[in-house]
UniProtKB/TrEMBL annotation:
Region (Disordered): 537-568
The UniProt record lists the keyword Phosphoprotein: yes
Key word Phosphoprotein present: yes
Organism: Olea europaea subsp. europaea
Family the UniProt entry places it in: Belongs to the NPH3 family.
Cited InterPro entries: BTB/POZ_dom (IPR000210), NPH3/RPT2-like (IPR043454), NPH3_dom (IPR027356), SKP1/BTB/POZ_sf (IPR011333)
PANTHER family: OS12G0117600 PROTEIN
SMART domains for the chain: BTB
Name this protein carries in UniProt: Root phototropism 2
Pfam family, one: BTB
Domain NPH3 per the UniProt entry, residue ranges: 184-463
Keyword terms, alphabetized: Phosphoprotein, Ubl conjugation pathway
Domain BTB per the UniProt entry, residue ranges: 29-97
Amino acid sequence: MATPIKNNSRLTLAMERTGQWVFSQDIPTDVIVEVGEANFSLHKFMLIAKSNYIRKLIIESKEADLARINLSDIPGGPEIFEKAAKFCYGVNFEITVHNVAALRCAAEYLQMTDMYCDNNLCSRTEDFLSQVALSSLSGAVVVLKSCEDLRPMAEDLKIVQKCVDVASAKACVEANFPSRSPPNWWTEELTILDVSFFEKIITSMKSRGAKALTIASAIITYAERSLRDLVRDHSGKGIKSLDSGESDIRIQQRELLESIVALLPPEKAAFPINFLCCLLRTAIFLRATNSCKQELEKRISVILEHVTVDDLLVLSFSYDGERLFDLESVRRIISGFVEKEKNVAVFNGGDFKEVCSTAMQRVAKTVDAYLGEIATYVDLSISKFNGIANLVPKGARKVDDDLYRAIDIYLKAHPNLDEIEREKVCSVMDPLKLSYEARVHASQNKRLPVQIVLHALYYDQLKLRSGTDEQNSNAMTTRNQLQADVSLVKENEALRTELLKMKMYVQDLQKNQGTSSKGSAKKPTFFSSMSKTLGKLNPFKHGSKDTSNMDDGMPDLTKPRRRRFSIS
């Protein structure tokens, strides 16, 4: 009777069954077969009748009466050996899609071929494979799955190749002519496979002319099943315990991801962009190779016009949603798309700086909205914020309202910035491209630097003075005039300050000198003369914003006075 070495209930049940049909022979056993943790007490003559391998072991043994045989390396282990032994004893057992590959390998190992004995186990398993197991896609996939622990023998016996051929052929047929609902049910069947076997099927499908979308459907389903927690979760909820450390499971997931990326068909637009963004976030989290991340970045940049803010946010945050990833991937993706658009514009003979495509304008709007979402995070530096904003060409933004909103959010989330830093944040925005509503908001926004508020207010005054419509105004001319006028305002303010300082200085000198006789006429001094002279000076006569110090005499009527709207 078979005797287990360790307390293993599964082996115990199997060997109890073995003992029942062995002792039914009413002949004492004469050999013990060791298979892993189990010992099987059997009869030599029954085994020799079917197994040429065991016959050779007994004949070639140096022992006169070989009483123990070790078959621990038999494919399938004790359970499969039990079925092989039953076959030797002529006891019926069931061959299924789950055990047929292991039985075929064990039969080969034990040399149970038709050359040694007619209708032996090898031919019986081959018949089942061809007539039953490989007659359907599901059966071929299950058999292929069982071969994962039977390599390399399963490959040498061509079992793997037969399964791959059948599975790929039937998958191509199902993709074109679905036989059940849902139409992509066959992609779910492939998800149970090891990635190496899945790769063989995908390669075989490509060689059979399968469409890129068909291949993409299979890869998407496989990736979402095999990397379930990493790829399918878009929000980061429920996986705060994930750690990107170098644990064994992380290493396995990284290798799996890199294998999946290597399978992607060359057609860049075969995959939806949200799936590619999830793959890239997984690659960043698992610290995949640079080549793996670059391949995903290139694919995303090609179809960036279809990206949403949520897709970009998927790339930007860790799975717990509490910290920003390195934003370099986002920068490279946007930069790659802009470069592609430039090349297209040059090829078409256009000027990319002045005229941008609809796709570029759509991406610009998405990037501005994306900046508004990440602006609330304290660890986002000015250089990173500006770096992403500056990637979008100026001509791609018809108005800068969305960018202004992002800047305002950033300034609100970073209240400790000084004037220079706030000006640096606002440097990515063109105040002349704000809508009327945005300019009104900017003129009342205390978070903005003074210069931006000046721009917002003065632009409207220039428009009122010129009487031109906002839609038809020349932005470049207005910008130059605005810059010149702002410069003049600064110069006038500086000169007025110097004059006030000089007057105060002269007055202090006059007070300190004192007078000996208050009623007598006094001779004008140099400083008093200078004070009167300076008082008569009117440096703002032709365009000053400040008229408080103008001479009280009659105005010069020979020239019309030039009037300006005050901005103070």
